[in-house]
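User: Show me a protein chain along with its predicted structure.
Assistant: Here is one chain, sequence first, then structure tokens.
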Amino acid sequence: MEKQENWSTEFYKGMDVHVTVMQKEDASGRWDYTVRVSEPGADSSAESELTAESGDDGDYQSAEAARAAALIRGYAMVDQLRN
């Protein structure tokens, strides 16, 4: 089980990129992330409002590293949607 943290949102190329990081509850102390992409102002917690959603299988040493990876993934998702 993972502990969910607060969501943060960045506007990128006309889309909202929502990211959250969570620390794994196992002994590793590693971090993971979730990314959601939506139209500006849409409710990112409602599945029907999402344009895309992603996480990954990586484990990160810190919350900052997980957040950076989440934003890179979110920007890539928007780039793919916009092409």
